[in-house]
Amino acid sequence: MESPSDVQPTPPVDIARPPAQTLPVVLASPHSGTHYAADFLDLTHLDVAVLRRSEDAFVDTLFAPAAERGVPLVRALFPRSFVDANREPYEVDAAMFDGPLPIHANTRSPRVAAGLGTVPRAAFDGQPIYRRKLAVAELERRIAWYYRPYHTALERLIAETRARFGHCVLIDCHSMPSTSPGGGQPPTGRVDFVLGDNHGAACAPALTHLAERWLQHHGYRVVRNQPYAGGFTTQHYGVPTQGVHVLQIEINRALYMDESTLRPHVGFEPLARRLADLVEDVGRTTLGHSAFPAWTAPANAAE
């Protein structure tokens, strides 16, 4: 009889495609997955309620209306606490595994030190996830069956968008706890959005400026790159000189959900409509600017 780890998983990735892609934008949600497989839960002493605190809960649903505006959305269906698709493929803690890792593994990044590698060691509150060490074969399985299909799907959408429009704007969609440094606390006050562009290296400055001004115009408090400048997706795919521009968006969860019950509140639907408007406006503004590095924002970009 096959062990659970030998069984081909349910589809790890979903792509919501519009009937026709009409805008040069791709949306990605790597941290909103909610499929907690039985073999994963057998390895942890934490229950799903604790593990779910690591999710960017409902972010895929929050951006889903944008797909109705001519924009594809790719989302991981597996949870972040199982595999984090916004990391390098082998960004892992060697102490978690029962044997030697591949020589190309990155075991010394700040994210690994914090317990937040490709296969996270710790839950959102620092609790260890696993009862025991994992087999190196389990790491390889998760990368092959979950991590790589997500990035294969993302790469395909980027390539299709570049071929159709001459460039691609990838918006990497995330959320942050209201109590995190990004969410802001007194005396600094609440931050609604953090825009991460790898300190200007991942996309044309005019694009970040456009999104920032648009959000501010609609009453939101916005900061750039602090404390979230972008993870692997932003750093790896954002190459403006090759026509790929990546902007990470972190949304304060208090804008759309009750963080204690993990349920959307009355702010969810209005925010979803507002985000669809933002995505559409970014896409329409960039349609005529395939030579992005030289592009400068129109004076009325936020209007």
Give an overview of the whole structure:
- This protein has 303 residues and is of the alpha/beta class.
- The protein is 29% helix and 14% strand.
- The protein has eight helices and nine strands.
- It has helices spanning 38-41, 48-51, 59-67, 110-113, 136-165, 205-217, 232-237, 268-286; strands at residues 13-16, 25-29, 73-76, 168-176, 193-196, 222-224, 244-252, 257-258, 263-264.
- The strands form two sheets. A seven-stranded mixed sheet has the order 1-3-2-4-7-5-6, with helices on both faces.
- Helix 3 packs across helix 8 (268-286).
- It is globular, with a radius of gyration of 19 Å.
Task: Describe the structure concisely for a colleague.
The protein has 303 residues and is α/β, with parallel strands linked by helices.
Descriptive keywords:
single chain; 8 helices; two-stranded antiparallel ribbon; alpha/beta; 303 residues
